[in-house]
């Protein structure tokens, strides 16, 4: 299925850019006239996905994060957050609530939060090559 409209942007994995990413995605999603709750859900999920890249993918280094946001038929919004960081050894384990590689200061709830706010989430990763998180949300009629 081909997207109706798409935007793509790349930025360094600095924590100050997390707010930019969530705001940019929300601004793009606004064309579908989502509810405030839907917009808040999208912003929260994007925030979690970008924060995962910053904290886990690149750890103590700076790398690039790419966000692609697309609209498809029937108001389906797809958001892809991708990095070329360290990758995830075991995606199923990483998606379990409370699992973290970020030390004691991390709750290990990032993927659980994303799953609770989006209609669908898919994670693909290769150790040493990076991770791609796809978030899907159906929005109200345009």
What is the string of helix and strand elements?
Answer: EHHEEHHEE
CATH class: Alpha Beta
Percent helix? 25-40%
Number of strands: 5
Family: Belongs to the anti-sigma-factor family.
EC number: 2.7.11.1
Keywords: ATP-binding, Kinase, Nucleotide-binding, Serine/threonine-protein kinase, Sporulation, Transferase
Enzyme class: transferase
Question: Your description of this structure?
Answer:
The chain is an alpha+beta fold. The protein has one domain (5-138): Heat Shock Protein 90. Helix content is 32%, strand content 29%. It has helices at residues 18-29, 36-57, 91-94, 110-117; strands at 5-12, 64-72, 76-83, 120-126, 130-138. Strand 4 (120-126) and strand 5 form a beta hairpin. The model has no long low-confidence stretch (mean pLDDT 86). It catalyses: L-threonyl-[protein] + ATP = O-phospho-L-threonyl-[protein] + ADP + H(+); L-seryl-[protein] + ATP = O-phospho-L-seryl-[protein] + ADP + H(+). Its EC number is 2.7.11.1. Belongs to the anti-sigma-factor family. It is an enzyme of class 2 (transferase). Keywords: ATP-binding, Kinase, Nucleotide-binding, Serine/threonine-protein kinase, Sporulation, Transferase.
